[in-house]
Amino acid sequence: MARRNLIISRVGDDSLHPTWLAQKDVARTWDFHMSYFGAKDAPPHAGEDGITFTKDVAKYKWGGMHVCLGKNPVDLDAYDYIAFPDDDVVVTTEGWNRAFELMRQYDLHAAQLALHPNSFYTINLTLQRAGTLLRYTNYVECMVPVTRMSVFKHISQYFDDPQSSWAIDSVIGHMLKDTPKSMAMLDAVPALHTRAHGVSTMYKDMTAGGLDYYQQEAAFLQRLGLTKISDRQVLGAVGLDGREMKPDAWLKKHIVYSYAVRAARNALGQTRIVSIKDGPEALERAMRMVEPRALAR
Questions:
Q1: What is the DSSP string of 101-170?
Q2: Could you tell me the pTM of the whole model?
């Protein structure tokens, strides 16, 4: 049976995408294309079943995606759903399978894998909550996103604009704002974000023109006649038993633990919690942290 799900990711030589492929006993429900910007001839796993790559040199995520898509490396029309994550997240093979399954089961247009509470993060809403399969929101962050292919095609028209880097989140939110329960945080499927924000060379390249990230985001959205989605809301949820839940106060509370961990890391100057170079034991521990929850039937 042909796979109807696709992952496209910009991957470098420190990419954690091998964790996504590590469960050899789990049948993938997705194909994988790597937009490779490393120094080697090819990234790990290139050429395996359903895995392709192109070598795409560019200075930031969306610019690299634009270069990649311009080569038509895959037939996007062959897929229903697409994930386009950063390469510094740990996710299991089964985790990606479950994410795509949730997209179908709940008829979602855009979602993101919720971040494990030990992750580096900036927005508390994106952190995984206990007791839920998913939370309906008005916002998703493009760190570990999954969308319908139609949503991806819409936003891809802006990938060649350097000022779009932080603004795509809001573009998706405005696109789907009139479609109830179309966006969600997938609490059943956590991802571990392993690297601090603002430390990659991409951020230096983004600000080379003199404008900071916020100024670029504002300028881009203004040109589109849009505003930043800063009022990020939980609109409801689905419990572990599959029942709908109202957006009660406990769903919206900040995770104090993650805030404390972040403060400690900032004090210590820690910018990474696990690396592909740390060896199999460290990677296996990280993968155990992000084992997906069972889906309600």
A1: HHHHHTT-SEEEEEEPTTS--S-GGGB--TTEEEEEES---TTSEEEEHHHHHHHHTTTT-GGGTTTHHH
A2: 0.94
